[in-house]
Design a protein that fits this description.
61% helix, mainly alpha, 148 residues
């Protein structure tokens, strides 16, 4: 298998150096303590809970908009729904110090699918991302047509 790994350009297997540390090329591999099953489950709960809240907000907001009787009420409900979805960011900006927000921002996972990290040029976006962006732009029009 080393020949196949070399042909594919994969790194070779780690080798122990004179101090007993594993090295792979010029990099030293630091042994990491294994994560328990319970810890992995707890780590998975935070993003799953966040996703569940987002989906519930989407469903409740869509039903709220679809039940609008008039166009004026639809517009007012759309503004109210937008306010509810962004109130956490407004509160964070208003009450948390800038340095704390900067430290917190490194833990956020937000990016366009299909775009490499740090690359936000539209020409480098994948076709799938373009398709999703077009559908997302049409969503308010579809909701408006369904409400009337």
């Amino acid at each position: 298998f080393p020949f196949v790994a070399q042909r594919l350009g994969l790194p070779a297997a780690p080798v122990a150096d004179s101090h007993g540390r594993l090295t792979q090329g010029s990099e030293v591999i630091i042994p990491v303590r294994p994560t328990s099953r319970r810890a992995r489950m707890l780590l998975a709960c935070a993003p799953l809970a966040s996703m569940l809240i987002e989906l519930l907000t989407l469903c409740v907001g869509a039903v709220y908009l679809l039940l609008s009787a008039t166009t004026e009420e639809l517009i007012l409900n759309a503004v109210a729904t937008n306010f509810v979805t962004q109130i956490d960011e407004v509160m964070l900006t208003a009450f948390v110090h800038r340095a704390s927000r900067d430290r917190l921002s490194k833990y956020q996972y937000e990016h366009l699918w299909g775009v490499e990290e740090g690359d936000t040029r539209l020409k480098n976006v994948s076709d799938r991302s373009r398709w999703l962006a077009r559908r997302q732009e049409l969503l308010p029009l579809v909701l408006l047509l369904l409400a009337t």
